[in-house]
């Protein structure tokens, strides 16, 4: 699921779950709603002030609010947290399996072949052109480009056409 769709889903869930607090124009049973300041300005008593026993509409119950927030957390966990953790574990696994000769791409967009590792600085020696070697932090490797045989086959197809 695309990230923007996830954000939209979470925003919609939040908008539906949070009631509007502090509403000045609350409907009164048996009559039209009056804003308290409008009733006070014309000299009439405020809506509901003349009849203290008139039932007032209640807001959502606290249990329902807790259930809604719990549901929002579950949706957030299913669509945001869990996939991110899974992606992070896959990236760590890919980085731990890197070896000499692997073709990789970095997060900065550099394409190259791994020529060695420096465990003290947790970096990779990457050959980006013949006899041009740069050091890149290991966690900056975004992914592998494929095997050398697959790349040679792709290069042959490109030169043939």
Average pLDDT number: 77
Number of E-state strands: 5
Proportion in helices: 40-55%
- Provide the β-strand percentage band: 15-25%
- Global outline: elongated
- Over all CA atoms, what is the radius of gyration? 31 Å
Number of domains as seen in the coordinates: 2
Poorly predicted ranges = none
The DSSP helix count reads 4
Main β-sheet, in a few words?
5 strands, antiparallel
| H/E topology pattern | HHHEEEEEH
Helix/strand/pairing class, anyone?
A: alpha+beta
Provide the spatial order of strands within the biggest beta sheet. 4-3-2-1-5
End-to-end CA span: 37 Å
Task: Write up what this structure looks like.
This protein is α+β, with helices and mostly antiparallel strands and 161 residues long. It has two domains: 3-95, no CATH class; 98-160, SH3 type barrels. The chain has four helices and five strands; from the N terminus they run αααβββββα. Strands 4-3-2-1-5 form a five-stranded antiparallel β-sheet. Helix 1 runs antiparallel to helix 3 (62-96). The relative contact order is 0.09. The mean pLDDT is 77.
Strand and helix map with partners:
Blueprint: H1 3-17, H2 36-41, H3 62-96, E1 103-106, E2 111-118, E3 123-129, E4 132-137, E5 141-146, H4 148-160
Antiparallel strand pairs: 1-2, 1-5, 2-3, 3-4
Helix pairs in contact: 1-3
């Amino acid at each position: 699921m695309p990230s923007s769709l996830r954000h939209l889903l979470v925003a919609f869930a939040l908008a539906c779950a949070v009631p509007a607090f502090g509403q000045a124009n609350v409907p009164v049973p048996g009559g039209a709603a009056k804003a308290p300041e409008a009733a006070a300005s014309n000299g009439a008593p405020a809506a509901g002030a003349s009849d203290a026993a008139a039932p007032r509409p209640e807001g959502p119950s606290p249990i329902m609010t807790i259930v809604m927030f719990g549901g929002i957390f579950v949706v957030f966990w299913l669509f945001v947290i869990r996939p991110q953790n899974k992606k992070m574990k896959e990236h760590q696994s890919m980085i731990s399996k890197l070896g000499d000769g692997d073709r990789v791409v970095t997060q900065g967009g550099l394409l190259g072949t791994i020529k060695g590792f420096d465990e003290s600085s947790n970096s990779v020696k990457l050959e980006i052109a013949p006899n041009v070697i740069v050091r890149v932090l290991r966690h900056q490797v975004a992914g592998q480009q494929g095997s050398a045989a697959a790349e040679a086959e792709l290069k042959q197809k490109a030169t043939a056409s």
